[in-house]
Amino acid sequence: MEVINTIGRRKTSIARIHMQSGKGEIKVNKRDFDNYFTTEVLRTVVKQPLALVEEDGNFDIHVNVFGGGFKGQAEAVRLAIARALCEVNAEHRPPLKKEGFLTRDSRMVERKKYGRRKARRRFQFSKR
Description:
The protein is an alpha+beta fold.
């Protein structure tokens, strides 16, 4: 199997992955997967597509991810892995689509407006 390259985005995070058949080794930014995503919740989020199609441990994945925080990065990696699994086998697409792993979550932080404290929060009104 050749190397499959895909991209995933979430908030301001961008993840590029290189996936090939192997023993299930995952490297994130040249670091071990368990060292990079320290909480069990984030590790579960990243591995959700692999577990769903029962391909966990069949692919070596090398991830380059930058921008945003750990949650956004984990969800960007999840999208990239789901897209790569669809390229490996077209039969993986319906279950991944049903779980929503192929949908790019486009929600971003709303920008701060001038004359406001935050994006929508106004300064406290004083009558007198």
